[in-house]
Amino acid sequence: MRIVGKNGLEIDKFVFIHGHGLPRLAENMKSYDCVVSGHIHPQALFDGEWKPAWMILHRKGAGSPRRIFVLPHFSLYASRAGYRPGPPVSIAPFLTRLSLESYRYEMKTLGLVTIGLGEAEDVVMKRG
Question: Are 76 and 51 in contact (CB under 8 A)?
């Protein structure tokens, strides 16, 4: 385990980052098998309301990182219902270092029920 700058922690081939920036030593995202990030705290519309959700990006072919986990907020006070801060790629710069067309997304409720599947660029890159 090692701290890789003020923004992250590395354990083997996993990197844990806040998401608003990259650790100085994590410039090459391909060196990690897995990225775990917060910052965006995704939400999804289900059962008629916006609720926190896990966003998991799965790489479609060879290459790294194989998986990217974007953590939901776990507190009722972390975000208001329907809060949408903007396109994730604009508020989480590490996403710009990935070829998003190489990933599929999966959205899950806090109870880990899958509520969405598709191409990562459809949800991450959407603007407006």
Answer: no
Q: What is the pTM of this model?
A: 0.78
* pLDDT digit string, tens, across residues 37-68: 877 778 777 788 778 888 899 999 998 899 99
Q: Are strands 67-70 and 34-37 parallel, antiparallel or unpaired?
A: parallel
Nearest Cα to Cα of residue 15 among 64, 58, 60: 64
d(CA 20, CA 93): 6
Helix, strand, coil share (%) of the chain residues, nearest 5: 20, 35, 50
Domain boundaries, given as residue ranges, for the chain: 2-41+56-74+83-101+109-117
Residue count of the chain: 128
Q: Is the distance from CB of 67 to CB of 57 less than 8 angstroms?
A: yes
Exposure letters 91-109 (e unless 16+ CB within 10 A, then b): ebebbeebebebbebbbbb
Q: Which residue has the tokens 């090459």?
A: 28
| pLDDT, position 99 | 81
| Strand 49-52 relative to strand 54-59, pairing | unpaired
